[in-house]
């Protein structure tokens, strides 16, 4: 779109220059001005079509009985036969370096000795999380299951048969014509992908309500082995889930929280280094798990590097774009690329709460400060890494602090295995007050922010 704008303006000035140089009659000026007028009318029409609103969302708050303090985690690890002293020492180190706090949660199956990670425990976890957030969303938005036209459920590692979306359709008797989808294998970028998918579907289906359910089922993702690259996910992933209601109905604008402005997806799976940086595989003993290698941070940064120019071209002010272009042209001399000031485009940032180091690496690449990182770091501390649902816990944190004002733009960034980098940009369209009393942060919002070294 940005390139098209430049080409249209270039065409306009070229035609005008030719007319002036040729001393043609004034009537010939009608041609370039007509081209310009038609273009901007078409642009205005395109931008007004298919408005999609984020009506509201809810996040799962696990019961206190599922809390897993570090001391309990480490003590239980010592009692498991498949962990030796070196494994327990590594687990303790990761816990204390991860940025997680003492109030994160595990699913019930992982409290057994040894942990139960079978199909039954996974299904129970699905029921506990998805049923809860779905019912809370229906109650909060005052809609019926029969009002839902599109259902998208995302969970990266657990793919039962019938599918997760079918479980919801069956449980709540959604209407026969509902369009239901289940997304798997997309990691922490899955929710942003689901929003993009819902937006595209709704562009061809007017007067529709779409519900997105996001979670990561841990019961089947537990790795009972000793190889360190596989053990990291045991330490940082925690229970969580979110439900989001999108609508393109005209009346939705009156009570929706946000208007969906844009979605963007960047794929990096063509590069082997990125593709294998996070990979489900078997260890040397034949035990299945997700292996993370030392390239994860660099891969995340490199993927983001290719994602930023496209996003910036859409939302950054002209002066920031010109500074960026100038730095690219002068790169051979200065050896530096200008990082635009994204605070001039967005007021709030929701980063993937993958781990403290990933959050800070992302902020470093974007030249953002502690205040911009706060929502991601506090979500990581309070709830742990909840995969793609973390972005909505972060937005709930910002709402709970009453920082999101009418007219503010929110940038949600999802980064997942593959690697993939997905963005969702929303604009707040009404005042948001009182969320601290009803959201997942209701009992702890006043204790944050904390200083995380």
Automatic annotation (TrEMBL):
Domain Beta-ketoacyl-[acyl-carrier-protein] synthase III C-terminal: 347-427
Entry-linked Gene3D superfamilies: 3.40.47.10
GO aspect biological process, one term: fatty acid biosynthetic process
Pfam families associated with the record: ACP_syn_III_C, FAE1_CUT1_RppA
Transmembrane segments: none
Keyword Ubl conjugation in annotation: no
PANTHER family: 3-KETOACYL-COA SYNTHASE (PTHR31561)
Name by which UniProt lists this protein: 3-ketoacyl-CoA synthase
Gene that encodes the chain: LOC102594358
């Amino acid at each position: 779109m940005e390139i098209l704008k430049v080409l249209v303006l270039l065409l306009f000035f070229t035609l005008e220059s030719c007319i002036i140089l040729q001393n043609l009659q004034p009537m010939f000026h009608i041609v370039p001005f007509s081209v310009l007028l038609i273009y901007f009318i078409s642009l205005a029409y395109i931008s007004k079509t298919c408005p999609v609103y984020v009506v509201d969302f809810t996040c799962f708050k696990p019961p206190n009985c599922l809390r897993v303090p570090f001391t309990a985690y480490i003590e239980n690890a010592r009692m498991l036969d498949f962990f030796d002293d070196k494994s327990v020492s590594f687990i303790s180190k990761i816990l204390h370096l991860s940025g997680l706090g003492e109030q994160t949660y595990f699913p019930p199956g992982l409290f057994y000795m040894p942990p139960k990670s079978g199909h039954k425990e996974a299904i129970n976890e699905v029921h506990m999380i998805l049923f809860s957030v779905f019912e809370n969303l229906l109650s909060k938005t005052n809609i019926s299951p029969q009002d839902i036209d599109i259902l998208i459920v995302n969970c990266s590692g657990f793919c039962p048969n019938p599918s997760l979306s079918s479980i919801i359709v069956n449980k709540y008797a959604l209407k026969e014509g509902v369009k239901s989808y289940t997304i798997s294998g997309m990691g922490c970028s899955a929710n942003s992908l689901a929003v993009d998918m819902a937006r595209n579907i709704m562009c061809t289906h007017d007067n529709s309500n779409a519900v997105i359910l996001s979670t990561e089922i841990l019961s089947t993702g537990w790795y009972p082995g000793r190889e360190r690259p596989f053990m990291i996910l045991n330490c940082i992933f925690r229970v969580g889930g979110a439900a989001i209601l999108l609508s393109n109905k005209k009346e939705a604008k009156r009570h929706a929280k946000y208007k969906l402005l844009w979605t963007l997806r960047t794929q990096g799976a063509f590069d082997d280094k990125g593709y294998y940086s996070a990979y489900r595989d078997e260890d040397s003993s034949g035990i299945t798990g997700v292996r993370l290698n030392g390239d994860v941070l660099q891969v995340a940064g490199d993927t983001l590097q290719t994602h930023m120019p496209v996003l910036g071209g859409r939302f950054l002010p002209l002066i920031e774009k010109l500074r960026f272009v100038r730095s690219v042209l002068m790169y051979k001399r200065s050896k530096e690329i200008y990082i635009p000031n994204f605070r001039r485009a967005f007021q709030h940032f929701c980063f993937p709460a993958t781990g403290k180091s990933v959050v800070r690496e992302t902020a470093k690449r974007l030249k953002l400060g502690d205040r911009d990182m706060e929502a991601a770091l506090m979500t990581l501390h309070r709830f742990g890494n909840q995969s793609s649902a973390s972005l909505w816990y972060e937005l709930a944190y910002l709402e709970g602090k009453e920082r999101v004002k009418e007219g503010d733009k929110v940038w949600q960034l999802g980064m997942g295995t593959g690697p993939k980098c997905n963005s969702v940009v929303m604009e707040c369209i009404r005042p948001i007050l009182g969320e601290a009393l009803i959201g997942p942060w209701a009992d702890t919002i006043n204790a944050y922010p904390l200083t995380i070294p």
